[in-house]
């Protein structure tokens, strides 16, 4: 009986070590690459300019924050009052949207920052900015990307 206990103890220990090794080798939660990128937007009569995008990922949930000099505010904008939709090309053909109503306070004359905008991703998704719609004070600015995303698409 004592031998049997030792045998189970060694087997259990060996299984525990193997399981720990498997966990250590498992990939970490999804990580987007790159985490930041730039592109240019043309927002018609509202202006044009560069935008900085910052992405994060937690499983299938992802966020992208946008700061752009393409749109500046003529008046101070309080936090949480900008409604935005960022449309991205998904895997070169389809599209997906990231939406939100989150922004820091923006002073008069300041560049519009919005996000985090939330969306859903799948492993291997490649997303590149295509357009941005920003609604402030009931006024809608539609912006279209005029350059490729640099250094390239976000890959989740």
Task: Please describe the structure with a list of short key phrases separated by commas or semicolons.
156 residues, alpha+beta, 9-stranded antiparallel beta sheet, 1 helix, 15% helix, 48% strand, globular, disordered N terminus
In short:
The chain has 156 residues and is of the alpha+beta class.
Topology of this structure?
Layout: H1 2-25, E1 36-42, E2 48-58, E3 61-72, E4 83-90, E5 94-100, E6 111-120, E7 126-136, E8 139-145, E9 154-155
Antiparallel strand pairs: 1-2, 1-8, 2-3, 3-6, 4-5, 4-7, 7-8, 7-9
Overall 3D shape: globular
Kindly report how far apart the N and C termini lie. Answer: 53 Å
Model regions low in confidence, pLDDT < 50 over at least 5 residues: 1-28
Counted by DSSP, the helix tally is 1
Binned strand content: over 45%
Rg from Cα? 23 Å
Structural class: alpha+beta
> How many strands appear in the DSSP assignment?
9
Mean pLDDT metric: 85
Order of helices and strands: HEEEEEEEEE
Helix share bin: 10-25%
| Main sheet: strands, sense, barrel | 9 strands, antiparallel
Q: Can you offer a commentary on this structure?
A:
By secondary structure, the protein is of the alpha+beta class. The chain is built from 1 helix and 9 strands; from the N terminus they run αβββββββββ. It has one helix at about 1-25, and strands at about 35-40, 50-60, 60-70, 85-90, 95-100, 110-120, 125-135, 140-145, 155. Strands 1, 2, 3, 4, 5, 6, 7, 8 and 9 form a 9-stranded antiparallel sheet that branches. The chain is globular. The model is unreliable at about 1-30 (pLDDT under 50).
């Amino acid at each position: 009986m004592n031998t049997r206990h030792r045998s189970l103890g060694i087997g259990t220990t060996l299984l525990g070590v193997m399981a720990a090794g498997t966990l250590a080798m498992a990939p970490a939660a999804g990580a987007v690459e790159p985490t930041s990128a730039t592109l240019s937007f043309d927002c018609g009569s509202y202006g044009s300019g560069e935008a900085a995008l910052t992405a994060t990922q937690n499983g299938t949930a992802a966020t992208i924050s946008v700061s752009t000099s393409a749109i500046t505010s003529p008046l101070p904008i309080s936090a949480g009052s900008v409604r935005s939709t960022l449309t991205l090309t998904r895997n070169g053909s389809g599209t997906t949207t990231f939406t939100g109503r989150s922004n820091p306070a923006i002073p008069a004359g300041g560049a519009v920052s919005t996000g985090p905008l939330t969306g859903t991703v799948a492993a291997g998704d490649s997303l590149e900015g295509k357009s941005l719609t920003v609604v402030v004070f009931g006024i809608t600015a539609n912006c279209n990307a005029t350059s490729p995303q640099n250094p390239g698409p976000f890959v989740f």
